[in-house]
Amino acid sequence: MGSTSAPNNEGLGRRDLIKRSAALGLISVPTMSFLSACASSGGDDDKGADKPKGEKTKDNPFGVAKGGKIDVVVFKGGYGDDYAKAWEASFNKKWGVAATHTGTQEITGKLQPRFNAGNPPDIVDDSGAQKIKIDVLHKNGQLLDLAEVLDAPSVDDPAKKVRDTLIPGTIDAGVLEGKTVALNYIYTVWGLWYSGKLFKEKGWTEPKTWDEFLAICKEATAQGIGGLAHQGKFPYYINVAIMDMIAKTGGLDAMKAIDNLDPKAFVGSDAAKAAVEAIYEVVEKGYLMPGTNGLTHTESQTRWNQYKAAFITSGSWLENEQLKQTPADFDMKFMPMPLLPGSKMPYEAIRAGSGEPFIIPAKAKNLAEAKEFMRMMLSKEWSTLFAKEANSLTILADGVDPSVKLRPGTQSTVEASKKAGTNTFQFLYTEWYSEMDTEIQNASNELMAKRIQPAEWLKRAQAAVDKAAKDPASKNNHRA
Predict the structure, then answer these.
(1) Whose CB has fewer CB within 10 Å in the chain, the N or C terminal residue?
(2) Are 298 and 321 within 8 A, CB to CB?
(3) In whole angstroms, how far apart are CA 439 and each of 81, 263, 427?
């Protein structure tokens, strides 16, 4: 959501660790009027008589010309936008292409008028709470199929296609109805976070079971510290906990049932019932950080940085997003979701995969430049630039120079990824069915505020699944 980042650790040797992560396959509502102008599938790279044209070669597969332009819009969230500015400078140095740069958290607000006018940017980091729903854009023909980029020669090794240089499985989240319409660029893990300093002072150890987690929450609460903080105004975050516990309790079949819109995905699922009841136990017992339900993500996270809560849920963009608010000795740490009794996955299992979707609008005026820009994003040079500026790994396998030193929290996510091995999972319904995702988030908001009980949450979540299943297009999305 609001951002994304990924991990790293030293100790094992950075290059070996990143290679290990790669080898293991480690390392989300605009109105319809907004999207009414259907776009062509986009092959007209050279629109306009005055637009410079470049010769297509092996080193210039899309025909970028000197003196061209590119319009870049980036979500300025947890990763900031300095990395994009560094990319744009590199792009201009190589191709003589001038960039128009926009860094914003108001993606829909800034871009809705432009899409309405048929004048979208050339490339967009479509992320954050105000992102444009990718499934809606796709249904209305607004997105370019990125197959041409993925099948182009790699910048680093022209003998390989770009897609063959990526961590296995990381492009899956951007595939809708068989087409790759978004490139989720950042390798991300999701789970719980805590302060190593606070835990050391209190004598707490990382809880591996739900009972151990509740015990720390109880002790923290007794000492005037909230047990769990969550970003109440953005229930996406608490769904990280709920959905992860469903997957770990019920195994991959429970996760696939949700993505595949099973009529028993929630109601009738023992794993879903156990998970939502466990989260509600935190609410019932008064272990939530006071006021957390009414806070934005940064407000809640800042209070957590002030030692007002023991735990918070988030993705691996958290550390970079909170740089200015985090005490120097906070010692930020990541951990997997603790286990409920009878869980089918081990404690070390984590939700891991790609996040931060980049899109190319089908009506972009500078398609050649946009495609080449994305191709260069998947080079070691640009992947390393991102790691330096945003404290995170990308989906490029072994794509970060070993000299790059990442911060403690991010390093802990790399170590967690190593321990997880092949025990990783990632939901796809958030990208495939944005309305369903929103409805489940709304139910979670009501749950955390004690306005509904777990049984009602399950009914509302299942109703969202059943509604999505009625859309004929849903039959084109399926995970085996």
Answers:
(1) C
(2) yes
(3) 30, 16, 16
What number of H helices and E strands is found in the chain?
Answer: 18, 11
Distance CA 292, CA 226 (A): 9
The residue length of the chain stands at 480
H or E segment to which residue 115 belongs: helix 107-116
Q: Which of 385, 425, 424 is nearest to 401 (CA)?
A: 385
Q: What is the pTM of this model?
A: 0.79
| Tokens 């489940």 -> residue | 440
- Given a cut of 50, whether residue 24 has pLDDT beyond it is no
Burial of 269 per CB tally in 10 Å (0-12, 13-18, 19+): buried
SS3 for 92-111 is HHHHCCEEEEEEECCHHHHH
Rounded to whole angstroms, the Cα distance separating 265 from 464 reads 10
371-415 per-position pLDDT tens digit: 999 999 999 999 999 999 998 889 999 888 888 888 999 999 989
pLDDT in tens, 224-256: 999 999 999 999 999 999 999 999 999 999 999
Query: Other CB atoms closer than 10 Å to residue 50's CB: what's the count?
Result: 4
Rounded to whole angstroms, how far apart are CA atoms 401 and 380? 8
Tokens linked to 463: 């109703």
Whether 170 contacts 353, CB under 8 Å: yes
Main-chain phi, psi angles of 477, to 5 degrees: -115, 120
